[in-house]
Amino acid sequence: MPLTLTFTDTDELLIAALHKRARAHGRSIEDEHRDILRSALRPLPKRPLDDILRGMPDVGLDADFERRT
User: Fold this and answer.
1) 7-36 per-residue burial string, b: 16 or more CB within 10 A, e: under 16
2) In whole angstroms, what is the distance from residue 22 CA to residue 16 CA?
């Protein structure tokens, strides 16, 4: 189902940046806008918790993070 998006009162610098980005990627402003929306709204890939934990840097000992009362 086609959808039309209309933007009003948009900053001219933002529009100029969109034109520049579209030219740099060799595509139309509409295609560039579509790609920006797709990138911004694409769900993040799910990763297993152990994979995420292994990717965290070692920043100290557990005792370094204990609450002080």
Assistant:
1) eeeeeeeeeeeeeeebeeeeeeeeebbeee
2) 10
Whether the per-residue pLDDT at 1 is higher than 80: the answer is: no
Compute the distance between CA of residue 21 and CA of residue 63 in angstroms, rounded to an integer.
49
Q: Which residue has the tokens 């060799």?
A: 26
pLDDT in tens, 25-53: 999 999 999 999 999 998 888 889 999 88
Residues whose CB is less than 8 angstroms from the CB of residue 66 and which lie 6 or more positions away in sequence, other chains included: none
User: What is the token pair recorded at 46?
Assistant: 């799910």
Choose among 14, 23, 68, 48: nearest CA to 31: 23
